[in-house]
Amino acid sequence: MRPLVRVQPPQPILNSKSKGEISEALILARLLELGYSVSLPFGNNQRYDMVVDDGKSLIKAQCKTARVVNGCVSFRVCSTNGFTGEHRTYEGEVDVFLVYCPGTKGFYKIKIEEATKTEVRLRFAPTKGGQSSQVRWAKDFELR
Question: What is the mean predicted confidence (pLDDT) over 115-125?
Fold first, then answer.
């Protein structure tokens, strides 16, 4: 009798579209857990990924995947055209960014008017110099 050999399943190599789809699915699940109603647009032609009903209003949301950079949750708040390289913001087209960070397993909500033009960084680790004024703490933007 031969011994059993355990084979590990292959680890998927995710492209940016796959990563975004996973983040969008996790954000959707988190919103449903929190009791929100969520609608998804038909097709792929909208600048928003979902519409969130908070019981008072409908909120157009763009979902983003963040990464950990120097003690911060970091994500881009503009899109880049793959053919022309042109950057385009979401101003006037979405109300909020809903963000999932695999590195922290955290969910964050940032209103469009609180975002910069290109990248948002939310700090979760103390700064090296110990300063805290003008620091945007990730905990203040957690999705609840």
Answer: 93
